[in-house]
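Most newcomers find our protein records easier to grasp once they have seen one. A learned vocabulary of local backbone shapes supplies the integers on the structure line. An example says more than a description, so a record of this kind follows:
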Amino acid sequence: MLKVLIVDDELAIRECMPYVIDWEAYGYTIIGQATNGQEALDMIRKEKPDLIVSDIRMPVMDGLELIETLHTTKSNIKTIILTGYDEFDYAKKAIEYKASGYLLKPVEEEELIGLLLKIRAEIEKTNNSKKVYLHHMIRIMSSGLYTMEMQPHFEEENMLREQNELYFLSVEVDDDDEMLFKTVKNSTNEEIACQIVSALTELIGKENDFCVQKEEKFSVSLIVFGELLERLRCNVSSLAEKMQKTLKELTGKSISVLVGKRAERCDLLSESRESIALCRKHKFYLKPGQNVEYEKIKSVPFNSILEDTSPITELVSVTTKGSDEEINLAVDALCRVMRENNISPESVKMYVNSLAMDLMIAADELGGSKETILFKFDMFDKLTNLHISRVGEFLKTRLKETKEYLKSLKNERFTGIIGDIVDYIYENYEKDINLSKISEKYHFNTCYLGQLFKKKVGVNFNTFLIGVRIEHAKKLLANPDLKIFEISYNVGFKDPNYFCVKFMEFEKMSPSRYRNEILQKGISSNEQNQ
């Protein structure tokens, strides 16, 4: 409804005007009455009417002064002048001040209706144009292209420029990543986005629909400003909660609302938009359907390095020689450690990629394809709405598939006694084992077993054993707290000097240099993620 203020010093006129016609039938509602122009200005500041119906001659401030004041302040309020036959010159003056029209007293019903219909059409046309303009302005502001120097080039009535409290809000559908696995059609996403836009428009009022934006990948954003919060009689936190509840009921999806940093000027709105990235990171360890506000999480730091990498090592171990249940337990343990240490999502991705690299090496050692492992983990980098629970689900599925692949490689390459010996080496590489002891264990002639091993595996027994030990040593070198001699003992070398010689032979660099290089790579990677 368009709001109308009646201004007249005659009580009879003020009491009569609400009953001349059915105002609501034509889209209007009378929100108050004033006895003079000054009183009207006070009410205008409070009630913000769309239309003023005013007499000309009144005490204190007459109708012409009122209209002139509105004209001078470049107000968009429409005005209708009530005039008598002897006041026609005044009416012409009012028209010069952009009055929408005048009516002769006593007011004729048909004339009033005709003028109201004309004014309503003008207001709706102006509002539609203004919405398009404001919609465009919000795009510019939130993208960071808007600066205070650009103000003179924009319309002066842009109320967004006057706001000292603005927020960028992002509506997130939490199970979005599942669509990567289920191959849901884009039309489904589009339908959900349209539902969200419609619901938000209804929630904040159609007159504010310029604040709702459809973003890329079918997400939806909302610009909230102080004046809008005042109209809705709530703060940004309660608005976000109401949005989340409404949209969850509407879509049947788990919905989160991310509230960006408060912007105190419209040219800082882009900072509010950029802060959504940090809010999205903090969703990583939260339950689906929880809202995140920048002001509440901005001081909560993420960690980039997992000091104890044994959960990663355990995952490699159970994938190469464990059961499905052991994989489940190891993945749960890793996710728990990540959560307890508040490891950043970027670092979690880095550790998962490191795990994939270890498994690629394992496949390569068994004569398999690195690309097969890479393909299984390639989709992980495409996940956007990342959450620790989905990381766990992803790893459990992919590691079980990888376990079966590695098992098939072992069956193809190492059958019979050689397969058993290879498994024994992987499980006991850190112990004091050699070809003689293995021959005795499996009741074979040492010379014959050595020849058979080289024929089946491609390298002699000692080279294979040392290679396995070196690969495990490389993983331990990533831990700066372990000394070189400790690592050599941990992987089965009795003499640290011999370990260094063999490491140089296999890797073309010393253990110390290898450690420095991988630690430096880790630091560089973390700096890029921060």
User: Anything to note?
Assistant: Residues 109-143 form the longest helix (35 residues). The chain is about 60% helix and 10% strand.
